[in-house]
Specification:
The complex is a heterodimer of chains A (119) and B (112). Chain A is mainly β and 119 residues long. Chain A contains no helices and 11 strands. Chain A has strands at 2-6, 10-12, 17-24, 33-41, 45-54, 58-62, 70-75, 80-85, 94-102, 106-109, 113-118. Classes of the chains: A mainly beta (119), B mainly beta (112).
């Protein structure tokens, strides 16, 4: 399994941060897996943001800290999932990772993208 | 949220010597399905975290057997039997018993 992220490394404050994660070697609609977004910053450490998964229908779970601003979508035609975080501030500056969740753990991680929010 | 606390935060070690680090959770990570959902990750500078161990003691494919995990309930330990230069970096534990999954603050291992 490989996860390949893409998206801008610089976002202006108040705008929307959007990242995409392409999945190779597994299916975004796999029955036993979930697809996560996690970020890492010196001030907040590793922080799980949310996940999407398919169990006869699509489900999403979001961290309370970003719940009002986050959307995670899956695209089965492209076998990818995406993160959209709106109304960003410099506090959202971090390295963002996409991961596969299986058996309540993250077994595969993307390479990470540093996203800087400029004020 | 489940709080995960690691200690020590910094661990200077001598190459070839054993080392251990601790991870404690604010509630039991034992699930009714019989599994205990505690994982360990290693992150080298500039790299993504790499999982070493899941469910307390199950080593991932390719992880050297000098790494071992143990523990139960709320107290867990990662041991490296003989530290090598490539083992430097930060080690994180993560709980998967309850959403949101949460990580410890990390233990930084460096060679003396």
């Amino acid at each position: 399994v490989q996860l390949q992220q893409s998206g801008p490394g610089l976002v202006k404050a108040s705008q929307t941060l959007s990242l995409t994660c392409d999945i190779f070697g597994d299916s975004v609609s796999g029955k036993s897996v979930a697809w996560n977004w996690i970020r890492q910053s010196p001030s907040r450490g590793l922080e799980w943001l949310g996940r999407t998964y398919y169990r006869s229908k699509w489900y999403n779970d979001y961290a309370e800290s970003v719940k009002s601003r986050i959307t995670i979508n899956a695209d089965t035609s492209q076998n990818q999932f995406s993160l959209h975080l709106n109304s960003v501030t410099p506090e959202d500056t971090a390295v963002y990772y996409c991961t596969r969740g299986y058996f309540s753990s993250c077994d595969y991680w993307s390479q990470g993208i540093l996203v800087t929010v400029s004020s | 949220d489940v709080v995960v606390t690691q200690s020590p935060l910094s661990l200077p070690v001598t190459s070839g010597r054993p080392v251990s680090m601790s991870c404690r959770s604010s509630q039991s990570l034992a699930h009714s399905d019989g599994n205990t959902y505690l994982s360990w990750f290693h992150q080298r500078p500039g790299q993504s975290p790499r999982r070493l161990i899941s469910r307390v003691s199950i080593r991932d494919s390719g992880v050297p057997d000098r790494f071992s995990g143990s523990g139960s309930g709320t107290d867990f330990t990662l041991k490296i039997s003989r530290v090598e230069a490539e083992d430097v970096g930060v080690y994180y534990c993560m709980q998967g018993i309850e959403w949101p999954w949460t990580f410890g603050q990390g233990t930084k291992v460096e060679i003396k």
